[in-house]
Amino acid sequence: MNFTKLFIAILIVTVLTACNNSSNIKKEQYQITGTIEKIDASLDAIISTAAKAEIIAEGFKWSEGPVWIEHQKMLLFSDVPANTVYKWTEEKGKVIYLTPSGYTDSITRGGEMGSNGLTTDDNGNLVLCQHGNRQMAKMEAALDKPAPIFTSIANVYNGKKFNSPNDAVYSSKGELFFTDPPYGLETQGDDDPKKELPFNGVYKVKKNGKVVLLSDSITRPNGLAFFPGEKKMIIANSDPAKPYWYLYDVGESDSLQNGKIFYDASVAMGKDVHGLPDGLKIDTKGNVYATGPGGIWIFNSEGKLLGKIKLNGPASNCALSPDEKTLYVTNDMNVLRIKLRD
Length: 342
Known about the structure:
five-stranded antiparallel β-sheet
């Protein structure tokens, strides 16, 4: 090989290496948002001082209901007004995963009609809180079908349609618990003419399909989660007049008993503070990650506020990775990733 050919070969390798490195850098660089506020020293065991909130996807109308699917290394989340579920992966970023996601009728309607909360059942099926269809549903069809097929898990209580199921969690017994505020109705209020139930409920669907009303007294029931052992449950109330996280004892028949305020977020409310108690998750140590005014509030199991991930714009929900080292947050038009610790 002469010197000219050798020089050209070296130049090609150098250019290709530079392009690959540039591509890798581009993938690894995300815009940073928000700040970490440490209120108690024990937060250091949960969040590294170097943790940052990365904007991994953006451009949504109202992002909600994130769930991490470990075996596919993907995050699914809803864009509620767009009636769409998106998929995010490190390799490809965001792509449409499912549409329609919450409203399948041909009659045009307004409001937040898409899916909201997402979870999976014991068989790995995607389970959706469908605002527009006013039901808890399971996705049955693969995406190569002409349209997704949904099987209703529950759509009525005592013969009356639900308002708009919002968030859901399965117990270890395989029973589905969910909240039902009016946000998916076109007026989003209790006076909507299509609202059939006189309350906003918290329900359980038994494995035989029977729907059990657990509470009709929370004004705007929203996010919910069990503490480890499933003897206690937190339910968020996204009511500006009562911005509370409620704590309940879970009875033998899964009845909710001895309700009390776990934490009152009204102290943080203000015109420049966005968000209300909404979606939440609890880790295996009993630490609570709750969306609320100003971002993500982190509590220990006793209700002590340890710190906050302060964000721009309202946060609606969050999801933990299986190793509990990464937190994903739906933050209005953005979706965030916080690597909590190594």
